[in-house]
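Run: sequence + pentane-1,5-diamine -> complex structure.
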Amino acid sequence: MTKGWTRREFIGQGLTAGMSLGMGAALTACGPRRTREPEEQMVGVGALEDELTIYNWSDYIGATTVSDFENEFGVRVIYDTYESNEDLLAKLQAGARGYDLICPTGYAVDVLRAFDLLAPIDRSVLTNWGNLSPEFLGRSFDPENRYTVPWLWGLTGIAYRADLVDPAPDSWGVFLDETYRGKMTQPDDMRDVIGCWLKYRGYSGNSTDPGQLAQAKADAIRAKQNLKSFVSAPVKDQLIAGDVWIAQLWNGDTAQARTEEPDVSFEIPREGSMMYLDSMAIPRSARHPKAAHAFLNFILRPEVAAGISDRSGYGSPNAGAIPLQTRVALTPTPEEFARLEYQEDLAEGTALWDRIWTEIKVG
Ligand code: N2P
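>> structure
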């Protein structure tokens, strides 16, 4: 296991010096000016609206993706972030309007489609579509890619401070061990937390079996006694500062932290873990669908996709981007891949998961 990512050079070149990890803040620009006639206006999108509101995961975009788009297209971008699919779903299901682009994980696309909350995408204007790698197309949550454009893929594992933790944690069971009590965190994300405890017991991370979920709940509540908190992307700063030594975390966020603190390492637990593909989608209530399509075609350019992957540390589904990347995303070996499972929609099982998650949080 320790042959894993501890020693692997998974950061090619680091992030640009001086860039902070705090990309969650709203990014806006006043009065961007168009520098050249955008290609999209020539392929049928028509005149763009002058604003675009993007709602994305935190720390999940290139350093200049938004400003480059604003400058080239003359569209002002309002950029807002979230920390979990459940936050995104709760907001949209409660009737939030005004988002033009969102970035759900596959299983959340199933939910959004079931509630008829997504607008179909007009692929005829996405002239850069062909850059996408076929392995990320036609997945079960959107077999014909009518609603989604693949954005980034990633996986959940254990980030840890190799200078403070020995041996390397190679099992989800580390969170049950009191040795590092108060120095460990798990994400504020029900799919990742309950999913890891299901994997720990050898079950599918998508299980809806009540008996298996009861076991996962018991493990999660035991582990909670050893946790400092449930925290997602913001844990990076705590890992860098040494306040947290072991964190269940996503590979790309780990790579971002490692850029600032080289002792931040990563393991995929031996019991296996969950992976996902996150995609851009247009909510039905979007007010700026043309600008949304222009942005989608923009991010499908290989150099733009490479910038998104380089900065976030996540894998690009854009085949054209791979040779342009300056940092190699933390890519699992074939043996590690074999231990990963895609997160799937829980369908009627969702209510049970929701209840168990609430019980874990208050337990
Ligand atoms: C990035 C969040 C990773 C996305 N901060 C998990 N689907």
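>> summary
The pocket of pentane-1,5-diamine is lined by residues 57-60, 105, 154, 233, 250, 253, 276, 278 (CB under 6 Å). The two ends are 32 Å apart (CA to CA).
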